[in-house]
């Protein structure tokens, strides 16, 4: 990470020139110096902007969003452009978002990119991954993935995840199964299509996991029982039974399916745009872990099979945004909030971490108090900023936000507040809390992106007959003394990948016993994706 001194210089120069572009910034900087207040270090200051409320659905909404973000000294927007396999952008194979507030001919993503970039704001395309549909009636558009691969379909055409009893509907609706190769390939293409066609600063995973069930057992959950996915598991493990929800092999296999999808999207996205930032809203609910090993017992790992800690360690995620949604005045939730903060700050693994705050659960003062606790350093450990869920929840009226988790209604906010002033508490404060963002700041630099020292390898494995080689083991080893051999598995679409490879010459081979396949040599270059195809005899 950059030095504190350099961070402050960058924060002032970018924040004043790019974010505001006005002489008023210089005046605020001079005032801060006169008062002895240190200029803000670089930090993420983001809004999640959901599709269900005013945000980017029209030109007027998007213009107002950008204006309010600038007034609040926000520097990044996570804008939801895909909720349930629909699109708020026109360069898509999926049907447009079906809502009276949205004109299907309006490219909301393109408009907000242009408007936000003019104002110096970063834009991340927020796409829900596995949710397929939520309503009681099916989508009206026959092209919708729910209509093509939902209830009533069989075999390869059935992409929905199921419970142990075969049910397809879960508390938050219908979900695609990450273990179904066709569904996984479909989801990967949705994200990569955005990267090809839009000048986004980043993509943002949400619901990159299996669905939650009504109860969360200590280990495992009754999800993932799609017939194709289950058959793949049996073949990979040499089993014929149907695993119990808490079966250790079944749990690990389901986590693997989600991680393989993240790995594929990350590496393929970098091949298109190496400077793209890949982020994810990730699960940080309930009792927090206290050690690295303790993360294995969290709800993220055991209930929804989302190993986001592993994604950071492997280097297939640039920015984690854990959803630390908690009431500021709750005794238990406050303790969990602080516990997760301590753990998160210590386990970034050289990547960026921005804390997601549930503004919809708290008053302005409560939100400011949580931002202040996020900023508290744990010795040498710190978070890189905050993201507020959500922009709509900052409105003065009591809104029940349809977001990534079902929660009680927020605390009452003043009905007399001017809606146009809803974000200004971030810059003016809310007694007894001082303002969080009285001055602009730039997002932190991600040095592994701007000055890369590592490269990536993307590959495919096929059988000699031309078919896919599901689960084939691949190893890679750098030429030289003391080099460590790394191992991975090909996914159901025969893709495999490695991240964080030091530049140099590498040996790549299939792990086949007793006969070894020939090794392939290739060169890894920093900031570049090298490709290879392996053939299994």
Gist of the model:
By secondary structure, this protein is α/β, with parallel strands linked by helices.
Protein model, in words:
Strand 9, helix 11 (331-346) and strand 10 form a beta-alpha-beta unit. The model is unreliable at 1-39 and 397-417 (pLDDT under 50). By secondary structure, this protein is α/β, with parallel strands linked by helices. The strands form 4 sheets. Strands 1-2-3-7-8-9-11-12 form an 8-stranded parallel barrel, surrounded by 4 helices. It contains 14 helices and 19 strands. Helix 1 (4-20) packs antiparallel against helix 2, helix 3 (59-71) packs parallel to helix 4 (108-118) and helix 6 packs parallel to helix 8 (248-272). The protein is globular, with a radius of gyration of 23 Å.
List the uncertain runs.
1-39, 397-417
Largest sheet: 8 strands, parallel, barrel
Shape: globular
By DSSP, the count of extended strands is 19
Number of helices: 14
Strand content: 15-25%
Kindly, what is the distance between the CA atoms of the first and last residues, rounded to a whole number of angstroms? 45 Å
Secondary-structure class: alpha/beta
> How many whole angstroms does the radius of gyration measure?
23 Å
Mean pLDDT: 89
Helix content: 25-40%
Side-by-side strand order of the widest sheet: 1-2-3-7-8-9-11-12
């Amino acid at each position: 990470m950059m030095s504190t001194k350099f961070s402050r210089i960058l924060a002032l120069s970018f924040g004043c020139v790019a974010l505001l572009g006005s002489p008023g910034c210089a005046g605020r900087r001079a005032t801060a110096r006169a008062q002895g207040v240190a200029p803000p270090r670089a930090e993420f200051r983001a809004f999640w902007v959901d599709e269900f409320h005013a945000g980017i659905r029209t030109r007027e909404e998007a213009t107002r969003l950008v204006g309010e973000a600038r007034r609040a000294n926000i520097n990044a927007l996570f804008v939801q452009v895909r909720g349930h396999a629909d699109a708020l952008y026109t360069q898509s194979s999926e049907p447009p978002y079906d809502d009276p507030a949205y004109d299907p001919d309006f490219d909301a993503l393109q408009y907000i990119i242009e408007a936000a970039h003019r104002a110096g704001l970063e834009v991340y395309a927020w796409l829900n991954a596995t949710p397929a549909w939520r309503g009681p009636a099916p989508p009206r558009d026959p092209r919708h993935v729910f209509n093509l691969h939902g209830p009533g379909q069989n075999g390869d055409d059935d992409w929905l995840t199921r419970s142990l009893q075969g049910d397809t509907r879960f508390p938050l609706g219908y979900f695609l199964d990450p273990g179904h190769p066709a569904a996984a390939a479909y989801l990967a293409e949705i994200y990569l299509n955005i990267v090809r066609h839009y000048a986004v600063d980043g993509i943002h995973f949400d619901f990159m996991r299996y669905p939650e069930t009504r109860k969360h057992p200590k280990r495992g959950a009754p999800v993932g029982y799609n017939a194709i996915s289950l058959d793949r598991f049996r073949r990979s493990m040499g089993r014929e039974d149907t695993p119990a929800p808490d079966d250790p092999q079944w749990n690990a296999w389901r986590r693997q399916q989600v991680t393989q999808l993240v790995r594929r999207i990350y590496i393929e996205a970098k091949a298109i745009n190496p400077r793209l930032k890949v982020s994810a809203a990730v699960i940080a609910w309930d009792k927090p872990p206290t050690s690295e090993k303790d993360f294995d017992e969290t709800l993220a790992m055991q209930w929804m099979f989302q190993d986001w800690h592993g994604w950071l360690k492997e280097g297939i995620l640039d920015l984690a945004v854990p959803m630390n949604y908690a009431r500021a005045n709750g005794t238990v939730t406050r303790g969990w909030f602080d516990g997760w903060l301590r753990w998160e700050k210590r386990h970034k693994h050289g990547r960026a971490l921005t804390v997601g705050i549930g503004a919809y659960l708290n008053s302005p003062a409560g939100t400011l108090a949580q931002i202040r606790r996020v900023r508290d350093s744990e010795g040498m450990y710190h978070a890189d900023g905050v993201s507020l869920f959500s922009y709509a929840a900052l409105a003065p009226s009591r809104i029940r936000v349809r977001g990534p988790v079902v929660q009680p209604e927020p605390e009452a906010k003043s009905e007399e507040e001017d809606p146009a002033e809803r974000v200004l508490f971030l810059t003016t404060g809310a007694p007894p809390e001082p303002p969080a963002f009285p001055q602009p700041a730039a997002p932190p630099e991600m040095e592994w992106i701007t000055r890369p020292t590592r490269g990536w390898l993307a590959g495919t494995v096929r059988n000699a007959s031309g078919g896919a080689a599901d689960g084939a083991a691949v190893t890679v080893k750098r030429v030289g003394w003391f080099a460590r051999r790394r191992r991975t598995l090909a996914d159901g679409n025969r893709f495999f990948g490695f991240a964080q490879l030091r530049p140099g010459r590498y040996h790549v081979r299939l792990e086949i016993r007793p006969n070894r396949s020939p090794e392939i040599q290739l060169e890894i270059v920093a900031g570049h994706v090298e490709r290879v195809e392996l053939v299994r005899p």
